[in-house]
Amino acid sequence: MKFIANQPIVLASQSPRRQELLRSLGLDFEVVPSQKDEPHPAAFHTAMGYVIECAAQKAREVAKKHKDSVVIGSDTIVVLDGEILLKPKTKEEAQTYLRKLSGKTHDVITSITVVHGASELSFHELAKVTFYDLSEDWIEAYTATDDPYDKAGAYGIQTASGIFVKKIDGDYNTVVGLPLASLAQKLSRAGYIRLEKSRIEC
Fold first, then answer.
1. Of the candidates 189, 173, 185, 198, which has an alpha carbon nearest to the alpha carbon of residue 4?
2. CB 142 within 8 A of CB 98
3. CB under 8 Å to 194, separation ≥6 — which residues?
4. Annotated catalytic residue 75
5. Do 70 and 116 form a contact (C-beta atoms < 8 A)?
6. Which of 135, 56, 127, 128 is nearest to 95 (CA)?
7. Which residues contact 41 (CB under 8 A, 6 or more apart)?
8. Given 37, 68, 75, 169, the catalytic residue
């Protein structure tokens, strides 16, 4: 299946994982990452409020300079017992995150905001991820690579650290960073995309 955009599409994210997922729809789009610093989680009462605002901020900022485009902003967080685990800044922080996640179930929330002119739609998807018990050897070996440091919670389900995952309850792509099925449905219903060689939106 290949989709065609009815308006120019801009992805407000530098994440290669999100770009790859969106590209799998066959869409042509421009990548324009947001340059604005994300807010601090402490300013929000809930993790959900934080991730929704982060996605909205990205989309709104980029949309200011791309007024005729459909701008997609996305943000993903890992939440364990109410604590938001962001991208680790150091090896020690990455190891701390992984020790906390070891043997437990946590939430992964991805929020999406789509802005087109004065129109804005937002939604989110939540997946529950359960880790195996992780040995110190595994944690040490993984955090010695470059992989954990650009990923919320210090792991990527689509990379080598996918072997940490025992079970997922929810959409796999939500954990990767872009809930593609929900996004495609909403873009189609809004009239932003259509199937190639078809006038009928799916």
1. 198
2. yes
3. 3, 4, 6, 188, 200, 201
4. yes
5. yes
6. 135
7. 47, 50, 84, 86
8. 75
Query: For the chain, how many residues are written?
Result: 202
Please tell me the pTM assigned to this model: 0.92
- Other CB atoms within a 10 A radius of the CB of residue 158 amount to 15
Token output for 58: 């990205």
Q: How far is CA 13 from CA 55, 65, 80, 142, 201, in A?
A: 10, 15, 25, 25, 26
Handedness of CA 120, 25, 21, 7 (dihedral sign): negative
Backbone angles phi, psi at 25, to 5 degrees: -80, -10
Query: CA-CA-CA-CA torsion for 184, 4, 114, 14, nearest 10 degrees?
Result: 90
Q: What angle do CA 82, 158, 5 make, to 5 degrees?
A: 95
pLDDT in tens, 172-198: 999 999 999 999 999 999 999 999 875
Per-residue pLDDT tens digits for 13-56: 999 999 999 999 999 999 999 988 888 888 899 999 999 999 99
